[in-house]
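Troubleshooting: if your tokenizer reports a length mismatch, compare against these two reference records.
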Amino acid sequence: MDEQMQLESGQPLNESLPHSKKDSHYIIGIGASAGGLEAIHDLFDHMPADATFSFVIIQHLSPDYKSLMAELLSKHTEMKVTDAEEGILLKPNCVYVIPNKNHMTLKNNRLRLTEKNNHQVPNNAIDIFFHSLAEDKHSNAIAVILSGTGSDGTRGIESIKKAGGMVIVQDPATARFDGMPNSAIASGFVDYVLPPALMPEEILNYTRHSMLMKSFPDLSPDEEETIVGEIIELIHQRTNQDFSAYKRHTIMRRMVRRMTSQQIKSLGEYWEYLRTNQIEVELLAKDFLIGVTRFFRDTEAFEVLRTKIIPEIIDQKTGKTSSNAG
């Protein structure tokens, strides 16, 4: 039985399938808390019903009241909206909502539910799901963080980015509660900051670019690496900006974005185009730059630097100065 038939029948996927086979469609995890319902509705009002993605909504819910999320969201999309169940296989063009008494993870495209500790503070249901989403889907994982208080989701998006996925966060200016969006943005692991209505277009663009990245014709990995290296060197020569240490996946995705805008389908053709077009070189370099980031991303390392390394250097200097004075 092939994978499509397994998806339709609800039978488990063949564990011997290569990872790329099992990751044949995108799963979008949407994290929200206080004030998130309006943002979720706005996002789905603008999301096509035939985008072939699976959506999983992780919202902070009270364990004491039945959630009406599935019923309410059904009025904003033609996709099937259902409460998540243990072991359910995710299907394209379907939306799954976390039950109010459970944590949820993803394994082999199936949702796994565990009993939630109602006394656990803070609530980290979004982080828990995003970690599993990254592990299961890699570059086919997309994380969305909407309105909410606290910082849930911030650790999870780090896993998404390290796995090669995409992260979109609601523009804090449009969020009823900006705690979660601001925390995510401060982490430096965010690709786009947008109001919910504009997120679907960027998600669709991302998936189209990823498909183009997988379809470069007639290039071996060595040839592709050579051309990318030459493009990075050209940018360095023309703009004095060195992107050689950037992750190749990020570089490739943003190059494909520029190629799409110029209607160029060959990496070699784009390389030739760059050699004769200074403006395009500058636009590509601008696209490489991360718009939302922070210098102190590795918090633990800089904390050691602040509390141990710098004081020791100061003590050594102070000791030498006192010795010379004596």
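Reference record two:
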Amino acid sequence: IGCMDCNPVNFKVDQDTWIYSLAIDERNCESLDSVLIRVREERKVFVPNSFSPNGDNINDYFYVQGDNQAVVEIMQIFDRWGNQVFEIKNVAVNDPLKGWNGFFNNQRMNPGVFVYFAKINLSTENSIELKGDLSLIK
């Protein structure tokens, strides 16, 4: 609030919340405005959206990264026709060698877009499901 003699406004939100403001000027003209405050929970894991399995040892594996206590309960990767091309279960995060290397049935996959599903256990009582697409780049 931008006036010198106004009381400060403080608030704290723990869920998505709309904040409305009504201002009335010296001629009794009203102006209403609003802003949506979105609360996002901090993610303890990160899943990239692309990788380049070309043997240069840079981004050669697609894998979950993040908090060392997190465990990948399951991660599945599918091609655009719905064929499963990769799956892992009960693997610690941050281990590129447990991730997908871009091969299926011992053959290098062509560049393209794939989709993944992953269930990540963050603690004994907290797990999350992540899904999205990833690009295999050469």
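Descriptive notes for reference record two:
- The mean pLDDT is 90.
- The two ends are 52 Å apart (CA to CA).
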